[in-house]
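Final report, closing paragraph on structural work. Over the funding period we assembled a curated collection of sequence-structure pairs, and we close with a single example.
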Amino acid sequence: MKKAYSIFFLLILIASPLFSQTQKYFFKEINWQIEIPESWRIDIQVNKTHPQFLKFFYIKPSDTTINNNIATADLYKYFPDFNQDWLSSRKAKNDYSTKDYKFYFPNCQIDTASGTELIDGLEFQRFNIKLTTPNGVPFHTIKYSRLFGEYEFTLNLDFLDEKIGEEFLKMWRTSKFKKP
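Its predicted structure, as stored:
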């Protein structure tokens, strides 16, 4: 009988990571739900001073003290009168980000790529920036953007640690958008 209890206890220990606790966050404006490991930190801010800037949040591992591994998302009110062509506007923002990186990190190699990716059946614009320092250390920024009616949603994944980057991508790619 002791052997049966030992085997049962061992199975529970082995399976426990499969049942890790998560936090859920829901952006009601775009019907988006994301699950984050309980050991990670999330900070949500609602901006009441600028009507076009609705929400912002960041996610990072709780044990990260510096912001070199962070996911940020923001939700803006989109005004088509000022931004006639949203895709052209996105490209201009991506070009600006690249120029910004080149200005602040002139000795680093900067590679970019853009395209689209389906997340829960919805198409998002994706823009990757990989900055490599002179000593070979890579830093990644991946931006996802999409219009949701009158809202523009952008998710930025910034990471130095490849393992954390994989966790960010896994959380994002398994997130859900409720269909209207």
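Confidence is low (pLDDT under 50) at residues 4-19. Residues 46 and 55 are 5 Å apart (CA to CA). We thank the funder for supporting this effort.
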